[in-house]
Structure formats: C-alpha cells, structure tokens
Amino acid sequence: MNSHPVDATTTSAWNKLAAHANNFSPDLRAWFAADPDRAEKFTTRVGDLHVDLSKNLLTEETLALLGQLADEVQLQDRIDAMFSGAHINVTEDRAVLHTALRRPPGATPALHVDGQDIDTDVQAEFDKVFAFADQVRSGEWKGITGERIKTVVNIGIGGSDLGPVMAYEALKPYVQEGLEARFVSNIDPTDIAETLADLDPRSTLFIIASKTFTTLETLTNARLAREWLWRELAATGAKIADDDARRSAVARHFVAVSTALDKVADFGIDPENAFGFWDWVGGRYSVDSAIGASLAIAIGPDNFRNFLAGFHTVDEHFRSTPWAQNVPALMGLLNIWYTNFLDAHTHAVLPYAQYLHRFPAYLQQLTMESNGKSVRWDGATVSSETGEIWWGEPGTNGQHAFYQLIHQGTRLVPVDFIAVANPAHGLKDGDADVHELFLANFFAQSKALAFGKTADEVRAEGTAEDIVPARVFSGNRPSTSIMAPQLSPSVLGQLIALYEHITFVQGIVWGIDSFDQWGVELGKELALEIAPAVSGDSDALASQDASTQGLINYYRAQRR
Ligand code: F6P
Asked: Phi and psi for 389 in degrees, rounded to 5?
C-alpha cells in the first residue's frame, strides 16, 4: 500500500469538477423536459434496491467526472485492499473486514488474513450464536428458576447498541411471538431503570455487548443489571443468598459479546456463554457479527442468515461493478459533489417506513464517526471539507417539522428517501389503502423538492401578489429515492451495506482513515478525571477550569 493517500484536490478530475461547478446552473425542470430518458438513465439497481438518482443535481458530465475522480484516487485498489484484509485502518494498524462476516459459508477462495482462517472462524462463531439463539427461542434455555426467556435486554452503546436496536426495530414483523428485545445504552440511570421496571427477572436474559469490554457506560449498566437480577430474583422467593447461587444466576441470565473474552470472565460471565468477534470488525460495522445476537435471538438464525446475504449482495456489487452502475460508488461520489463543490454541509435520510425509525440515528454513527476527521490517514491535514452532518426522521413526521427548511431554506440539503412497496400492515381507511396515501406523500415530496412551484404558478392559483414570494418553491433541491419490495431481513442488510460503502467511498476521496475514532477519546478521559470532583474531591475540583468548576458547584449545591 502507498504510504500516502492520493490528494484528491490535486487530481485533474477535481479541477474539472471545480470548473464544472462554477458553470453549473441546475434546472431539473428543463433537464427532465429535454430528456425523456433521464429517469431511466439515472436509475440504478443493486439487489432488491431500486435507486433513482435522477432528481439529483447532476448531468452525464458530472457523473463522468466523478468516475474519473474515483479512478484518480484509486478507489478500486482501495476497495480491493479492504476486501483482501490489508491494514487500511492505519492508525490502529488493523484490517477492515466486516465484509468477511457476510461471506456465505463455503465461499471461495478461502480468506486467510494475518495468519487467521477468517471464514472458518466466522462460521464457527455464527454456529455458536445461532445454536444459542435456537435454545432461547425453543425454551430449552431456561432461567435459574426454570422459566423460559421472554425478554432479552441488550446492554451496549455506540456500535454495540445502535445497530442491534435499529435492526430489531426494522424487523419487528419477524420477531418470534412471546419474545421481545430491549436495549439499554445510556449511563443516565433513567435508561436502565425505565427499561427494567416492568420485567420479571426469572424470564429476562441480559446480553452485555461491548467490543472492548471496557466501556464505562456498558460496564456500569451491566453491574446495575446484575444487582437488579439478584435483588429481584430474591424478591420472587428464589434462593439467591450465597455466592454459588448468585454465580449460577449470572450464568443463566447473562451472556456477553466481545473481542476481549478475558475481561468477560473477570466480570463473572462464563466464557462458555460468550460470543466473540475480532478487532478487524469496527464497532459501527458490527451489527452483522455476534454483536447482533439480540437480533439473531429475536428473528431467528434463518432470518439472520438472510440479513447477512443481503449485505453480501451489495458487497459483491460494490467490489465488481463499474462506477457508472455501482450504486454505493455513485452515491458516495455524489456526496463528494455536494459537499466539496456545491457547499452542502448536511445530508438528510428520510425513511418512508416507520420500522426504519432508528435508521438515521444508526447512520449518524456510521457516517460521522467514520468520516468526521480533519487529518488524513498519513497524519497530514485534509485538503478539503470532510464528513457531512447526517440527520433525519421518518416521513411523514418530518414533513410537519423540518421539511420547511429543506424546501425553502437558504441551505442545500441533499436528501435520501427510502420506501418499500409492501407494508407490513395493510390497513385501510374506508376504501383508501393507507400505505398508498403514505407513499403518495413520499412521491410528492421528492417531486416538490425537484420541480418546485414558480411565481406564475402561485399567481395562477389566485394568490395575493404580496404573498407570492413566500409561496414560491425554488425546486432544484436534490434527492435520491431508494425503493425496495418490502423491508425484509435481506433488504435491511442491503441498505446497511449500501451506506457502509458510501461512507467508505467518501473516506477514500478525502484520504482519511474511516475506521478509527480517536475523536471520542478525550471526553472519555476527562470524564474519568472529573468524576472525583463531582463527588466532592476539592483538589480535583480546584484543578478544573472556572466554567467547569462553576457547573460542578451548581450541581453540588442543587443535588439533594
Ligand atoms: O466511544 C465510541 C466507541 O468506541 C464506538 O466506536 C463503539 O461503537 C462504542 O464506543 C462502544 O464500544 P464497545 O463496543 O467497545 O463498548
């Protein structure tokens, strides 16, 4: 591997894109009118995903230049490097192999990296997770008092929470009846208190999910959960007074997922009840590893395998499809166009699928922890703007909240809409199919953003002249529409892999390491340093800056 990334800003494609942007006057109305094939020309497909890029601010020239940029930054080499297990996570000196988690059993040629037989290890761990999931689902796995498990509580944070909770919510229709999963992440004690409040300890199983098994939030919540289990079991009359009984209770009610199995044992969880993964799976790329154990239990191994197969479909497409049809590459490159040439600062993801309500939050970690960087992987300062702010809420709720700004504000906000043709609940309002009303809103929004409404059209509706300007919609507000037949496990896997690879493409153009996250460390260190001051250590308090001292003093004066 080269010891420096290609600086995209020095490429000929970058210069041409800058010139192209200077002369760019997007006119989606005129473009669609002039080219009846525009929609078809700019609609691409991967797996079950139908991706319409035609309402973006792009021409064939834009795409050709972006393709040239991909070539000049050696995107294909970097993709190959990732899939082959090169240490492209440079600052942590690690391979990046989440794609290996979804290789089908028996995939050839076998993948060996750094002396590890990756396929064998991955399949062995999934076998273990799936066997455990089957035991819980069948009722063979019992709590200490002999009751079957009804509730699985995943305790984790960041990638050990956002992926599992998002996917569980997305795949609710696939969850086995009589089973539910809940998720605790925040160290705010309210989170665990509320989550456990109505649970029966005899039928509750905790999964402690932490890649490092050192995360303050997760270990604190795990200890609180263990105390809760012992206390609430005792309250039911279970004999739990001595150490042996307590250990047995933990063995039946706690399992762990981690890359640090020694630390799992220190916590008191039997390593037999722990599932592993590897340092080449980044936390935010880990929902398809054993970190997804809560999901595997809830939806079952067959559905989980379909979930993995969905990822794999997109992986194969990404590594082998020319840029002009390569959906993750096109979408990633388009984001470069908006961010670096058209001055967009944010990117909205608006699912018209209520079950995807946690997808934007999931994407925030995936994209912003990956690409929110100011230095390149060789330590040099980046030469252009990097990671956008990703955000979103499900439609139609967003329509009644922030769409005003997207339609008429001064900022350019590229939007991804996501919708499925078949709803999980085909409800009718009288004769009206409610899903059709819902989708009409999605189609309407992308149309309104693209084509807007002119002053003459507003006037033609009889609007008083002084109000006309306020009712004009400029149009030319870009959106991508992603549709799928239904929100199946496979489709969800496809969507996640799509955004993983979009994130990768952008990171390559910017020359950054999309797989480290040093920016989260300082706050963690300071929290540990400040904790004694919060608890009343006056020396620790005195060493803080004036503002921090003032805040801590306020807290101590108010706390009852
Ligand atoms: O603080 C950020 C982070 O390191 C994320 O990258 C990670 O997903 C999360 O914390 C949780 O880490 P762990 O799984 O090791 O508990």
From this structure: -85, 120
CB within 8 A of 492, min separation 6: which ones?
Answer: 167, 170, 171, 307, 310
Q: Which atom of ligand 1 is nearest to the CA of 209?
A: 14
Lowest model confidence (mean pLDDT) among 246-250, 268-272, 408-412: 268-272
Given a cut of 70, whether residue 1 has pLDDT beyond it is no
Q: How many residues does the chain have?
A: 560
Report the alpha-carbon angle 176-161-368, nearest 5. Answer: 135
CA 393/CA 106 separation, integer angstroms: 39
- Mapping DSSP onto H, E and C, the string for 49-80 reads EEEECCCCCCCHHHHHHHHHHHHHCCHHHHHH
**Ligand 1 mean position, distance from CA 288 (Å):** 15
The predicted model gives 312-338 an average pLDDT of 98
Report the distance separating Cα 474 and Cα 223, nearest Å: 55
- The Cα 156–Cα 169 span in angstroms is 16
Determine the distance separating the centroid of ligand 1 and the alpha carbon of 2, expressed in angstroms: 29
Which residue, chain included where needed, has tokens 């059993």?
105
Cα three-residue angle 513-161-149, rounded to 5 degrees: 150
pLDDT at site 500:
98
Mean pLDDT of 174-191: 98
Which among 378, 308, 259 is positioned nearest to 98, based on CA atoms?
308
Helix, strand or coil for residue 207? strand
By the 10 Å C-beta count (0-12 exposed, 13-18 middle, 19+ buried), 133 is classed as buried
Give the Cα separation of 166 and 160 in Å (integer): 11
The active-site residue, picked from 140, 272, 400, 425, is: 400
Query: How far is residue 410 CA from its own chain's centroid?
Result: 28
The verdict on whether 400 is a catalytic residue reads: yes
8 Å CB contact between 101 and 308: yes
241 confidence band (pLDDT: 50, 70, 90): confident
Residue 383: other Cβ atoms inside 10 A:
15
| pLDDT for residue 543 is more than 70 | yes
CA-nearest residue for atom 1, ligand 1, is: 520
Rounded to the nearest integer, the mean pLDDT of the chain is 97
In three-state form (DSSP H/G/I as H, E/B as E, the rest C), the secondary structure along 449-508 is HHHCECHHHHHHCCCCHHHHHHHCECCCCCEEEEEECCCCHHHHHHHHHHHHHHHHHHHH
157, 258, 367, 522: residue to mutate for ligand 1 pocket, most atoms within 8 A of CB: 157
Please confirm, yes or no, whether 150 is among the known catalytic residues.
no
Those residues with Cβ within 8 angstroms of residue 137's Cβ, 6 or more apart along the chain or in another chain: 176, 179, 297, 300
Averaged pLDDT, 250-272: 93
Q: For 208, list phi and psi in degrees, rounded to 5.
A: -95, 110
The token duo for 420 is 């499925």
Q: What is the DSSP letter of 5?
A: -
List Cβ neighbours of 231 (8 Å cut-off, separation of 6 or more).
Answer: none
Task: Over range 29-38, report the average pLDDT.
Answer: 98
Report whether 247 contacts 268 (CB < 8 A). yes
pLDDT at 289: 98
Q: Which residues pair with 482 in a beta bridge?
A: 51, 418
